[in-house]
Amino acid sequence: xxxxxxxxxxxxxxxxxxxxxxxxxxxxxxxxxxxxxxxxxxxxxxxxxxxxxxxxxxxxxxxxxxxxxxxxxxxxxxxxxxxxxxxxxxxxxxxxxxxxxxxxxxxxxxxxxxxxxxxxxxxxxxxxxxxxxxxxxxxxxxxxxxxxxxxxxxxxxxxxxxxxxxxxxxxxxxxxxxxxxxxxxxxxxxxxxxxxxxxxxxxxxxxxxxxxxxxxxxxxxxxxxxxxxxxxxxxxxxxxxxxxxxxxxxxxx
Length: 253
What we know:
Low-confidence stretches: 1-24, 228-242
Largest sheet: 6 strands, antiparallel, barrel
CATH superfamily of the largest domain: Lipopolysaccharide (LPS) transport protein A like domain
């Protein structure tokens, strides 16, 4: 019984990694193997780990939890889905005391949830690391961050995403592009994903392509015919005449 208690405690805390709030009513867990290392105070879930609540589902090949430090680690490719959001990465570390999780390694966050739970144009955020604090309800991406939504693409060193507000705050080497060829660069920018409004400040440089609408098409000019070159009159041909015979002395006198 003493060995079973820490195993159940560790499993329960592992399950809370995917809980958005304590109101979750049911948690299910599956793995091929579960064991407990009493010396190192470590619970391990090995093989096809799957943890589900009423809001989230998380999968990973391997997970472990340190009961004394209250830290969980998921490795081998992690995927979390729920409430219109999917996050993937190579590994995840969860700090339960701080209510904080760090997803790292080719991180990708896809969200289709808009304000009030509506479904909008999917937002895709990629980077090398994503830190999520579920009590505060936001995630912070770092390392070559890219945010895509429709024909808008943003690049920066760090981005903070507020899902409920549908806001992305970007910092460091910010560049925002639109599919029509417009772009801007700045030190900081705010992107409202619900209203499509972008605000930038700090060394802003921008380019936009302006097109005049309903502009009449130019009428092609009618080519002016070349002035005819007058032809020279025919060369006058003299009528040949037979010259008179020479006068011969003694004959024509």
